[in-house]
């Protein structure tokens, strides 16, 4: 298992591994997702893998598929450099969002078994604290430790001021100002890249994620593209998710840039963590069920008037709250449809008995 330890295998996964399957299957970690096929690292090196027919049938109804970072049970096809995936070992963490362009509640898994999530935003015209609040909700709900990276510091004259602004909206979350071009902040970032630790990067298109991967890997692991100067927006550079082993010993997952981040759920209480300051102020409201809209004695509205609270932050508080409430309702509707479909499939076909048929013919 020495080679697998480089890719994060440890006693936690050893205890999770199904001992009864050891004689038939071997563990591996998905390092790249190419749709129906996956690149997987095993004790024997890299192999191509695909799901067994049974696994595809089982997971299709649940809408859950293997993701980059997953540990899986494999049946190795000797001499072919291929393997069949039979199951996913229970995930430790999972980073997900609501799948874009889908009306029903549908989770899109970004990466699995991540320890640290770098939330990247560039210090150009695309800099947006409100967007970062959404990324923080996703991070806390995923069970990972978020770290904010303010990239392209060479393009900004007030980087430290913006870092202070980020620290205000994310108390306790590390914030680092970095520039790959000027080699700024590298020591702080590499401190997270310990052997066996999996780090993922996420952020909007063109924020510099692939450049950061190349900078830390000290090689051209990922292709990069420039941004559109007229709006500081980037083009999609990374087209699929991939996990890289870095020279520092850590592992890094690069993900395609997001045009928008639709929140999937709030099982981890991420929304309350991100807006803990508003929740604390809200404890001073006259009414315990105050919604901070136009109620008399609302301490939150008073805090906005006094300059204690940014009005835009309050607006995002309301917006993300409504979005998550809507998402919960949508997920419940989707689940009811699935339950009805399962019930219909299990409903026995009712046939008239031979006795009843004979009575009908006699009549």
UniProtKB/TrEMBL annotation:
Its EC number is 3.6.1.-. PROSITE patterns: ENGC_GTPASE, G_CP. Coiled coil: none annotated. Residues 331-363 are annotated as: Disordered. GTP binds at residues 151-154, 203-211. Its main location: cytoplasm. InterPro entries: G_CP_dom, NA-bd_OB-fold, P-loop_NTPase, Ribosome_biogen_GTPase_RsgA, RsgA_GTPase_dom. Residues 112-259 form the EngC GTPase domain. The keyword Hydrolase applies. Its cofactor is Zn(2+). Residues 341-350 have a biased composition (Basic and acidic residues). Zn(2+) binds at residues 285, 290, 292, 298. It is found in: Cytoplasm. The keyword NAD does not apply. Residues 103-261 form the CP-type G domain. It comes from the Bacteria. Keywords: Cytoplasm, GTP-binding, Hydrolase, Metal-binding, Nucleotide-binding, Ribosome biogenesis, RNA-binding, rRNA-binding, Zinc. Binds 1 zinc ion per subunit. Pfam families: RsgA_GTPase. Monomer. Associates with 30S ribosomal subunit, binds 16S rRNA. Belongs to the TRAFAC class YlqF/YawG GTPase family. RsgA subfamily. One of several proteins that assist in the late maturation steps of the functional core of the 30S ribosomal subunit. Helps release RbfA from mature subunits. May play a role in the assembly of ribosomal proteins into the subunit. Circularly permuted GTPase that catalyzes slow GTP hydrolysis, GTPase activity is stimulated by the 30S ribosomal subunit. This is Small ribosomal subunit biogenesis GTPase RsgA. It comes from Paenibacillus dokdonensis.
């Amino acid at each position: 298992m020495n080679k697998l330890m480089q890719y994060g295998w440890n006693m936690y996964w050893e205890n999770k591994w199904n001992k009864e399957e050891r004689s038939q299957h071997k563990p591996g970690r998905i390092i790249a997702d190419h749709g129906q096929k996956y690149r997987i690292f095993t004790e024997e090196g890299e192999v191509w893998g695909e799901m067994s027919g049974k696994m595809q049938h089982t997971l299709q109804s649940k809408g859950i598929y293997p993701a980059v970072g997953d540990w899986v049970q494999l049946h190795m096809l000797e001499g072919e450099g291929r393997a069949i995936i039979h199951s996913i070992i229970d995930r430790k963490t999972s980073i997900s969002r609501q799948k874009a362009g889908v009306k029903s509640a549908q989770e899109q898994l970004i990466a699995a078994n991540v320890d640290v999530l770098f939330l990247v935003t560039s210090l150009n015209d695309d800099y947006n604290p409100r967007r970062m609040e959404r990324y923080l909700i996703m991070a806390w709900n995923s069970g990972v430790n978020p770290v904010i990276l303010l990239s392209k510091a060479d393009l900004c004259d007030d980087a430290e001021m913006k870092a202070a602004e980020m620290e205000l909206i994310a108390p306790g979350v590390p914030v680092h100002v970095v520039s790959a071009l000027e080699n700024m902040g590298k020591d702080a970032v590499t401190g997270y890249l310990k052997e066996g630790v999996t780090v993922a990067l996420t952020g909007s298109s063109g924020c510099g994620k692939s450049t950061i991967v190349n900078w830390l890997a000290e090689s051209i692991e990922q292709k990069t593209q420039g941004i559109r100067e007229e709006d500081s927006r980037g083009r999609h550079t990374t087209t699929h998710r991939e996990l890289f082993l870095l020279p520092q010993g850590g592992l890094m997952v690069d993900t395609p840039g997001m045009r928008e981040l639709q929140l999937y759920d709030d099982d981890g209480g991420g929304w309350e963590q991100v807006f803990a300051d508003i929740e604390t102020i809200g404890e001073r409201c006259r009414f315990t069920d105050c919604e901070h809209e136009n109620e008399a004695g609302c301490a939150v509205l008073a805090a906005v008037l006094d300059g204690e609270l940014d009005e835009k932050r309050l607006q995002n508080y309301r917006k993300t709250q409504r979005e998550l409430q809507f998402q919960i309702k949508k997920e419940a509707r989707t689940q009811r449809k699935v339950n009805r479909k399962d019930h219909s499939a299990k409903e026995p076909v009712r046939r008239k008995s031979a006795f009843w048929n004979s009575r009908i013919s006699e009549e």
